[in-house]
Amino acid sequence: MTQTQTQTRNRLANRTMAFVLAGGRGSRLQELTNSRVKPAVYFGGKTRIVDFALSNALNSGIRKMAIATQYKAHSLIRHIQRGWTFFRAERNEFLDILPASQRYEESTWYRGTADAVAQNIDIIDSYDVDYILILAGDHIYKMDYELMIQHHVDSGADVTIGCLTVDRKQASAFGVMAVDGTDRITEFLEKPADPPGIPGDEKNALASMGIYVFNWKFLRERLLEDMEDQTSSHDFGNDMIPDIVAKGKAQAHRFTDSCIRHPDAPAYWRDVGTIDAYWKANIDLTDFTPELDLWDRSWPIWSYSENTPPAKFIHDRPDRRGTAVSSMVSGGCIISGTEIRESLLFTHVTTNSYASLEGAVVLPYVNVARHARLKNVVIDRGVHIPEGLVVGEDPEVDAKWFRVSPGGITLITQDMLDRRAKGL
Prior knowledge:
The protein is of the alpha/beta class. It folds into two domains: about 10-285, Spore Coat Polysaccharide Biosynthesis Protein SpsA, Chain A (Alpha-Beta Complex), CATH 3.90.550.10; about 310-420, 3 Solenoid (UDP N-Acetylglucosamine Acyltransferase, domain 1), CATH 2.160.10. Helices cover about 25% and strands about 25% of the residues. It has eleven helices and 29 strands. The radius of gyration is 23 Å and the shape is globular. The chain starts with a helix and ends with a helix. About 45% of the residues are buried. Keywords: ATP-binding, Carbohydrate metabolism, Glycogen biosynthesis, Glycogen metabolism, Nucleotide-binding, Nucleotidyltransferase, Transferase. It comes from Celeribacter baekdonensis B30. One of its GO terms (biological process) is glycogen biosynthetic process. Pathway: Glycan biosynthesis; glycogen biosynthesis.
């Protein structure tokens, strides 16, 4: 990269604000979001889902950020306060937390994604930026946003939308874009029954990632207009984007053009919005060469790093050996005489003798008692697995006490175990 190109990148990053939408509950994750919003759900052994959007922005050179919260935000706010407090105002760096606070009407919280931005126009104005990057805080991926912002500037678009290439048969679950030969968006369709194909690649479609780049002055005017529209749902995907596509210039930016990956690796993006998808994305990290590279020091995923001792494995008898094969075990874990296979353990998990875990995603501060056998499970934070509990061998028995997903993954929470103990 030439010096001029580097200077241009730095100027664009300095003139951009990242606005992260993190207020949605994520109800498809069932009891995992009973006490926390989806972006605050744990992922990958030591991070939260929201860390990916924030880390991408930070690694892209963006130092002005805000995060809008609404549903059960305490866990998310506490995580941001503990792990993301290294911004320095004297260097013109910010990360503001913007809870829904009835700023315009006493009965109104954030009414939609666009309204979450609109209610904070005065705060965004204070950042004195030229561009605003709207991000969903609930997806797993690594992306250089600077390349997308540069594409937006070069194309002269009113909005640039990050797009995934997906199989056309599966695209009905997304907002889908019809584009011309230059990737200018000609139509935006929300979950269409018959998604339009890509010119020259009719088997695939372009699906929205929920990532948008705007010139701030342009978006500001559109937001004020939308706030006055009584027929609007005040949402980017439902209202503002289709209107801009129809009346202005909207450009598609393909994820493959800015995805951070090794040269031979696929472009990795995951919506971990269901128990099955969440379990698989975590377990995939235990593969010999996972598609998502968390070991890449050139594009790290920043997070709150708890001060923990190294993981510890104890006992070495044929029937009582602390082992972990094809697994990830985080700091503070004590594996005492337990056999662990193809599992991911978060911090401070303790497992006891004669227990076994296979295909287990175990959140922090879980204790697994002796003789427990757990297969294909997600265990919520702070759960105490009782002695001899067997899960993953009889789906009908599991479904009596726990939540069993369509894909056969069993979610275990402490409330479920308490009801089981009482026979309720």
